[in-house]
């Protein structure tokens, strides 16, 4: 691949505003879009919001389409043109693994060619905006775990050049996958080829999509040898395995989310936005992720110290209720409380069986419901007489208190 030369842009602004979104996974055909346009509407809302606030730049971290089809690429490009017609907004887009998938096209090259022709972008790009380096790094194939092997020589050179002129500024690197075992979701969906290179640059800040894991979880920022943020998605939320209500939990399409990055001489701040159909809102407005400038990786967002300060949740009401509804048992109880939020609930029977459920945090903390209702197959509780329900936070801390219900 040919290494693109950096494109230098100077914007007359004391504070840069940069939107960051990912994983639109637009329908593959016009017929599919006619049946369901939810993801396209989420993309349009996000772009319209960034236009409304005067965003200077928008980063899109891959998976334009559910497959890499001409229709998906064209639909994305049209949405961008319509949103920013007449504006000077810089839009940096990369491909994701889904953008390499699709029937009738063999190999990576045709998909990259379609991307270049229809989206009008190079798969690998390098912008320098007001002295900040932004590297857009598509994978070189549709691999889920090793998509960057052939990209690394270019990326090594680009990072070395960026580091030589970063002058106390972070170097932003946008990939589709996270480096493995970094932020929330990277243990399941991360790429194995990025960490060794990224670890050489303490002022590197990674943005990525792919996992769809909720950015409301404080583990969505990670700091070690470098800094990593995941962006969630504009399509649907997905979470880790092991819960009764599934990796794609109920109403997972209702809260598409992304970021607003604000950069000034004094501050690097990241705000979390929800692009719901009911309106765009800022989530957790009182606790944006923030760093002083010049940027220094002081590991303030390392997992260990934050987990050590964490307090376990509380179940405020000991009473729970159980009722039989057909072949299901429905449990109802008062929602747990936490210094952040209750991530999940553990149901423990008096026979020792355990069942884990996600709470509804992923659809927005102000929309979390109380009382909580959970359903289990009655057959799974056939030998039990009572259940206890504990709250668990995102760091894995479990409440000492519990709600208890008698079964039939």
Automatic annotation (TrEMBL):
InterPro entries (alphabetical): Calcineurin-like_PHP, Metallo-depent_PP-like
Protein name per the record: Metallophosphoesterase
Domain Calcineurin-like phosphoesterase: 16-213
Species this chain originates from: Candidatus Fimenecus excrementigallinarum
GO molecular function annotations of the record: hydrolase activity
Listed SUPFAM superfamilies: Metallo-dependent phosphatases
A Pfam entry, by short name: Metallophos
């Amino acid at each position: 691949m040919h290494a693109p030369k950096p494109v230098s842009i100077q914007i007359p602004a004391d504070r840069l505003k940069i939107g960051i979104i990912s994983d639109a996974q637009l329908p593959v055909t016009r017929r599919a879009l006619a049946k369901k346009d939810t993801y396209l509407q989420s993309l349009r809302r996000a772009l319209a919001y960034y236009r409304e606030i005067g965003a200077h730049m928008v980063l899109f971290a891959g998976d334009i389409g559910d497959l890499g089809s001409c229709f998906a690429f064209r639909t994305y490009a049209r949405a961008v043109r319509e949103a920013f017609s007449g504006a000077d907004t810089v839009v940096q887009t990369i491909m994701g693994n889904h953008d390499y998938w699709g029937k009738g096209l063999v190999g990576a090259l045709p998909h990259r060619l379609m991307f270049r022709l229809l989206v009008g972008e190079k798969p690998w790009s390098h912008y320098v905006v007001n002295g900040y380096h932004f590297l857009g790094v598509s994978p070189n194939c549709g691999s889920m775990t090793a998509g960057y092997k052939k990209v690394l020589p270019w990326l090594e050179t680009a990072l070395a050049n960026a580091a030589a002129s970063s002058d106390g500024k972070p170097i932003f690197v946008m990939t589709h996958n996270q480096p493995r075992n970094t932020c929330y979701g990277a243990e399941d969906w991360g790429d194995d080829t990025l960490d060794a290179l990224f670890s050489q640059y303490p002022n590197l800040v990674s943005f990525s999509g792919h996992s769809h894991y909720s950015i409301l979880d404080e583990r969505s920022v990670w700091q070690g040898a470098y800094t990593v943020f995941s962006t969630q998605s504009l399509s649907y939320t997905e979470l880790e395995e092991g819960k009764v209500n599934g990796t794609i939990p109920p109403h997972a399409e209702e809260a598409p989310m992304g970021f607003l990055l604000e950069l000034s001489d004094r501050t690097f701040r990241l705000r979390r936005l929800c692009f719901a159909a009911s309106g765009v809102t800022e989530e957790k407005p009182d606790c944006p992720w923030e760093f002083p400038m010049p940027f220094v990786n002081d590991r303030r967002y390392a997992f260990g110290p934050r987990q050590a300060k964490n307090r376990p949740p509380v179940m405020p009401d000991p009473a729970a209720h159980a009722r039989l509804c057909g072949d299901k048992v429905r449990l109802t109880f008062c929602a747990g409380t936490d210094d952040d939020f209750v991530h999940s609930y553990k149901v423990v029977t008096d026979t020792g069986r355990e069942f884990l459920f996600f709470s509804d945090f992923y659809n927005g903390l102000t929309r979390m419901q109380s009382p909580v209702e959970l359903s289990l197959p009655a057959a799974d509780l056939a030998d039990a007489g009572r259940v206890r329900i504990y709250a668990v936070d995102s760091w894995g801390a479990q409440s000492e208190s519990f709600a208890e219900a008698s079964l039939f």
